[in-house]
Amino acid sequence: MPERQKIQNVVIIGAGNLATHLALALHRKGINVIQVLNRSRQSGERLARRVKAGFNNDFRAADFRADLFILAVSDSAIGEVARSLHLKDQLLVHTSGSVDLAALSGASSNTGVFYPLQTFSKEKRINFSNIPVCVEANTKENEEKLIQVARLISKKTQMLNSDQRKVLHMTAVFAGNFSSFMYTIAEDLLKKHDIPFNLLKPLIQQTAATARHEDVFSRQTGPAVRGDTRIMEEHLEMLAKHGVYMEIYDLISKSIIKHKNRNDEL
Q1: pTM of the model
Q2: Per-residue pLDDT tens for 40-52?
Q3: I need a surface site. Which of 94, 104, 235, 247 has the fewest CB within 10 A?
């Protein structure tokens, strides 16, 4: 790719968890974050200092010297903030897993999506090179520019269109948010019986390791996949006074059995 096409200067719009980690990752790889735009002055100035950037809390004051404008704001604010920047042909991307590329239509003639698949916390440092970055753009040239930036900070880049990205985001809720809530249920039940949650941590780590394999279900264990109805009934009886926990246990167990039976028929 010719040198003139490379992304050198970036404006970050937002100063939340994702904006912070993305700005720091770009800064560490030599990309110039020349400006942070954020409504909240305190958090915006704090991020700007960390990446040696300018700051403004007025979106209309965007620095047009930038090669790339990255919207790292809430999904509901993407359209409004994008239009308030008053860009023309500058490359503008959002970072959402569930918002269509078309949400940027009318905000610029060059648009894209730069979606890091991970949950972020400002307090926890993350190795960005292990985070998949999913890219989409409205032209092949813009796509190549975004891939170049993605590969600079991540070892895992993937081209996905808006429909594919929405599916990925939905499955991330199953794999991440729902599995995390399963730990919460376990912790809550253990506390009620004065049992330390730490006892489950080796099991959780071992279970998470199965995700390294392609056919995850082939490594499924537990009473449901074994068809051990006696144990499942005993567990349901124990959960009877816990309402929704019993319903979750029953529904997931039935789903496991159905999935196993379908696989056995193949």
Answers
A1: 0.89
A2: 999 999 999 999 9
A3: 247
